[in-house]
Amino acid sequence: MPDVLIFGDTVRSPEMRHEVSLMVPDPFLYAEVEGEGEPHVVVGSLEMPRLAELDRRCALHPLEEFGLDDLLAGGADRFEVIFEVAVRACRAFGVRAAVVPSEFPLELADRLRAAGVVVATDPGLFSARRRVKSAPEIAGIRRAQVAAEAGMAAAVQLLRAADSRADGLFLDGEALSCERLKDAISAAVASAGASIGDALIVSHGAQTAVGHELGFGPISAGEPVVIDLWPRDPASACFADMTRTFVVGEVPEAILRFHELTRDALERARAAVRPGIAAREVYTLACDPYQQAGLPTQLTKAPGEMLERGFFHSLGHGVGLQVHEPPLLGRSPDILRSGDVITLEPGCYEPGLGGCRLEDIVLVTDDGYETFTNFPYRLEP
Question: Does 175 lie in the same domain as 126?
């Protein structure tokens, strides 16, 4: 079996963060060598004390062990130094053939090949390693989900307090807009200890039928408001993901129908979650209510057709160190396994009118599932 190499920092590389559960902002080398119990980590001395405290035991090597000082004294630049140190380390560890993530630096791969090391990507291997979440990752997803629900509650509070007028919703004399809801959500998420940045969806009206439209502008009574949040827990770097749909005032008949179908789809899918089930089977169950109502899904569309209405996306995805990661709950061949953390997010849409989407996070357990999300589904805020 080939050895395993990862090169990157733990901020941008989920593969590295899964193996080394600390924030390390500069790229370093991680190596698993066949026949050796502990992985090797080659890293700057600044990071050594923290890495030594990790629960997972690693053989820690300072950059100086592989000629850092000589390289710098010889005038080598930063990139020459970090790549040459990595090549020397692999040579010292006896690495002859290794699998790497798809994002492995091309220059380092070329240097290793020139040194006689066979390097090949294997994205399936690394996604499989990350699918079964560690205990710290599970705890981080739970914390991020609590923060997501705090943000959603803040939005509900504003929607509930708004006054409905002919020219829109107003609160304290000012128009209630997507931007105002986003500010309240961001503040609540931050107060709950997570980060959300600028990437959150608060869309309204016809915007809600446009995929990942982030949303903008003042909100009116009687139109759908879709709120989709994916905050990140800073300690674990893991995400949560949740979506709810609201209407202030009288609910349009079409949106009420979409909401009922989507609740049905969500519950049918959730009830089927267990280890060993095909993701496509769960997706098919979620499609059934829409198809029975005469609405299109990806299972009923013609080959090559791009759907703009109905249930036009997949059911969900894995979530963890990336907000979208394997498995995919759609037409993919993925099989659910114990330890997967997945989203279930059916939705139904009509261009020009809007749509409805509901999303929960679910952990696949040995005997079924556990729902992390704990927030009402009602349309009225």
Answer: no
